[in-house]
Write a structure and sequence with these properties.
Layout (H helix, E strand, L loop, with lengths): L6 H17 L13 H14 L3 E4 L4 H13 L3 E5 L10 E4 L3 H15 L4 E7 L5 H17 L3 E8 L4 H14 L3 E6 L4 H11 L7 E5 L2 H10 L2 E6 L2 H17 L8 E3 L5 E5 L2 E3 L4 E3 L10
Parallel strand pairs: 1-2, 2-3, 3-11, 4-5, 4-6, 6-7, 7-8
Antiparallel strand pairs: 8-12, 9-10, 10-11
Helix pairs in contact: 1-9, 2-3, 4-5, 6-7
Amino acid sequence: PKSKGNQYFVTCEKGARAAAKDLGVELLFDGPTNSDPAKQNEIVENWISLGVDVIAAACENKDGLSTALRSAQEKGIKVVTYDADAQPDARSFFVNQATEKGIGDALLDNAAQLIGNEGEFAIITANLTAANQNAWIEAIKARQAEKYPNLKLVDIKPCDDLKDKAQQETTNLLSAHPNLKAVISVCSPGVPGAAEAVKQAGKTGAVKVVGLGLPSENKAYVKEGVTQAVILWKVEDLGYLTIQAGAALAQGTLKPGDSEFDAGKLGKMKIEGDNILLGTPFAFTKENIDQFDF
C-alpha cells in the first residue's frame, strides 16, 4: 500500500486477505506508516532479498518505485501494480480500479440524472495541473458533448486538495452563478467542502453535490441529503482482485496478451492491454452508504 494506516488501504488489505485465504497463498502486507516513497523502496528491496514470488504495489512515487520493481523483475519476481501505476516496463499488469472514461461518465451521468439532464454545473478540482484529474475533466466534457446538450459547464475551480478552500470556491460559484444546479468534485476533499458550502447557503437539495471520495468522509452529508452521490469503487474488491492477479501471474494462468482471467469470486475480469479492469465506478448513496466502512 501507499500507507498502512490509511482507511482506504486498510479496506484493500481486507480484500487481499480474503483472496489469499481463497487461494491458499501467504500474504505479506506492509507499507509506510505515512506516505513516504523511500520507505516503499526499502520494503520492496527487503522482499527481493526474501525471494518472494510476486510483489503487488500501489506506487506513491511512480519513477522512484519503478527502479526497485525492475530489480525485482530481474530476479525473476513477478510484479503487478494496483491503485497507482508504475512505469509500464516495471510490472506485467496494472490492476486498474476505473478508467478515465468510466470515472468521467459516472460523475456526469449521476449529476445529469439528478438535475433532469439540463442546467448549469461547475467542477471543483485539486489543482489545474493534476494529470489524472484533468483526464477525468476531459472525460466529463466529452460525455457532456456526446450525451447532454442541455447541460452547461460554467466554471472549473481548484481547491489545492483542501476542504476549506473547496468550501470557499463553491460559495463563490453559488454567488457568481445563481442558476447553478450541480457541483461535481473530482478530488476527495472537494466533496465535503462543496457540500458544506451548499448547506451554509441554504441550498440543500436545490444544488446537487456529486464527487469522487470516500463514503466515510461524506456519510453525514449524504444522510442529510446535501450530497446525493459519492462515486468510487469497491475498495475491498480492488484488494481481492490484485492478489488474484498476482497469484495467476505467478502460476502462469495469467499471461501478457490475455483478454480476460478468472478472479475467483469476482468471476471473469476484462483485460485491456496490460490493464486488468475492476469495472465501472460505484455510486454510494443514502440507500447503500451504511454498508461500507472506509
